[in-house]
Structure formats: structure tokens, C-alpha cells
Design goal:
single chain; 311 residues; MetI-like fold; 2 domains; 14 helices; flat
Length: 311
């Protein structure tokens, strides 16, 4: 009799827990949907504003349902000729090459730091951590890159300075190696006669796909959004990436709309879609990232969570 009563209590308790779990899932899903919409709506507004008539923007402001639609901003951007496509090509090239080199250097530095039997791993970790706290400054860096390495007005000026190797990414990868890859796997490879390079490229690197995808996304975003390197080291417009070109286009629009330009050409106000162009520039700038992100998102959370655990 007592056993039957106990079973009934357990069943009721399980049903209660299951009901609470469903309520939690529903409430958390609703909250996440609200947060997702809050993050998505500004992007939607930017896209809509880029297709809104300039006069309508000035009269009514930004709206999800504009009074008049227009593609003048994108027409103006396309009128720049091959400049846009060349800048896109430069940005794609710099992002791909910079990301590949950065990921290779980062993962190779992190590997010895994760090995327990590496004698100088603490010293190496100190030097890497030191770069997170101190740097040489803009002027010494500029002098080093331009006078010693002679990268000014070359494509390497957009790749080598500032972003090639980051301490945060190194520690992220090191912690992933330490927590996700067992030492027994490395020891068995050593017993079979594998060298350190063989272990790294055939065992460690393939097993580190989540964290490699994570730091690849971080690095690619940094290279794609960068405009500082071109500002410092590039004087030839043919080496401008998409971000620097968009800034230059915006500056040209502001000049043409300014009173100084109007006086110089002896005309009245020049009508250019400056506000809509700003929005179209933002759309053009984020479009590749929006396209690529879904393919690496499945690795992103795992790479960050495992790599962030203290090793």
C-alpha cells in the first residue's frame, strides 16, 4: 500500500517538474524572441532607410513603412564605376589572407603554451599577456612598419599591422587545447613516432575546429571592418578597402553639399542622397558578414565556451 502511494507521489512530482520545465522553456523562448527582434529591428530599419527617398527621409525621418521608396542611394554607389568592386576585392583579399595567416600563427603559438611538459610555457604566456597591457604606440609602430619593413602603399600594410595576432585569441585557443584535447592522445602519437608538427597538423588542428572557427570569425570581422591601417599606411586610392572607400564617398558627398562647393561651381544647393547613402553604405558593409555568419555559428558557441574555461 505504501509502495503504491509512493509511486503516485513520484508520478505527481515528475508531472510537476515536467510542467515547470515546459513553462520555463516557453517563457525563455518568448524572452529570447523579444531580444532577437530588438537586435534585428535596427538592421531592418537601416535596410529600409537605404531604399527610402532622400526628401522623404528629411521630411518624415526614418520609418519602417516610408512614404516613398527609392533606389537613388544604390544608383549613386553604382555610378562610382569599378571603384566599388575593386574595393570589395581588396577587402575580400585582405580578409582571407589576413585571417588564414592569423589563425595559423595563433594556433601554433597556443599549442606549446598548452603542453604541460613545455619548459618555457609560462614565459611564453607572460610575453603574450604583456602585449594585452602595453604596446609601443602609434608613432613607433608607424616608423617600424614604414622604415624597417617598407610596407607603405602596399597590400601588406592592410594585413600585417595591428591584427595579425591577438593575445585574446591565443589564450582562447590554448584553453581549448588544454580542456578539450586529452594528453593521452598526444602521448600515443609520440609513442608512434610522430613529430610535433605532425601531431599539430594531423591531430590537434583538426580537433580544434570549433575554436578555429571562432577565432576565424573574430579575425575576419576585424579585418573586414578595419579602416585604420589604410588611414595610416595607404595614400594610393587603388589600395583602399570597402570601408575606406565608403568613408571617402561620404566625405565627397558632404563636400558637394557644402556651401564652399556651391560657391566654387556657382550653383545652388546640390541634391545628393546623403542620408540614404549612409544607410546603403552600412548595408554594403555588413552584407558579407550576414551571409557568412550562419555557416560558422554552429561552432561559435562551443568554441567560446570551451575556450573560455580556465585551463
Amino acid at each position: 500500500m505504501k509502495s503504491n502511494t509512493f509511486k503516485k507521489v513520484n508520478i505527481k512530482g515528475a508531472d510537476h517538474v515536467s510542467s515547470d520545465a515546459r513553462k520555463f522553456e516557453i517563457s525563455s523562448t518568448v524572452i529570447l524572441l523579444i531580444l532577437a527582434l530588438a537586435a534585428l529591428l535596427p538592421i531592418v530599419l537601416i535596410v529600409v532607410a537605404s531604399f527610402t527617398d532622400e526628401t522623404t527621409l528629411l521630411r518624415n525621418g526614418y520609418s519602417f513603412l516610408p512614404e516613398k521608396w527609392s533606389t537613388d542611394a544604390y544608383v549613386y554607389m553604382l555610378q562610382q564605376g569599378n571603384t566599388i568592386f575593386r574595393a570589395y576585392g581588396i577587402s575580400v583579399l585582405v580578409t582571407l589572407v589576413g585571417t588564414v595567416i592569423s589563425v595559423l600563427i595563433t594556433t601554433m603559438i597556443a599549442y606549446p603554451m598548452s603542453r604541460k611538459n613545455f619548459k618555457y610555457k609560462n614565459i611564453l604566456a607572460f610575453f603574450v599577456f604583456f602585449t594585452m597591457l602595453f604596446n609601443g604606440g602609434v608613432v613607433p609602430s608607424y616608423m617600424m612598419w614604414t622604415q624597417m619593413f617598407n610596407i607603405k602603399n602596399t597590400i601588406w600594410a592592410l594585413i600585417l599591422p595591428n591584427y595579425l595576432c591577438g593575445a585574446f585569441n591565443i589564450f582562447l585557443v590554448r584553453n581549448y587545447y588544454s580542456n578539450a584535447i586529452p594528453d593521452a592522445l598526444i602521448e600515443s602519437a609520440q609513442i608512434d613516432g610522430a613529430s610535433e608538427l605532425t601531431i599539430f597538423f594531423k591531430i590537434i588542428f583538426p580537433l580544434a575546429v570549433p575554436t578555429v572557427a571562432t577565432i576565424s570569425l573574430f579575425t575576419a570581422l576585424t579585418y573586414w571592418n578595419d579602416w585604420v591601417n589604410a588611414l595610416y599606411y595607404i595614400q594610393k586610392p587603388q589600395y583602399y578597402g570597402i570601408q575606406n572607400l565608403l568613408i571617402r564617398i561620404m566625405n565627397n558627398i558632404q563636400y558637394l553639399k557644402s556651401g564652399a562647393a556651391n560657391v566654387a561651381v556657382g550653383t545652388g544647393a546640390i541634391s545628393l542622397p546623403s542620408n540614404a547613402v549612409r544607410m546603403s553604405m552600412a548595408v554594403i558593409g555588413i552584407l558579407p558578414i550576414v551571409v557568412i555568419y550562419p555557416f560558422v555559428q554552429k561552432y561559435f558557441v562551443k568554441g567560446v565556451v570551451v575556450g573560455a574555461v580556465k585551463g
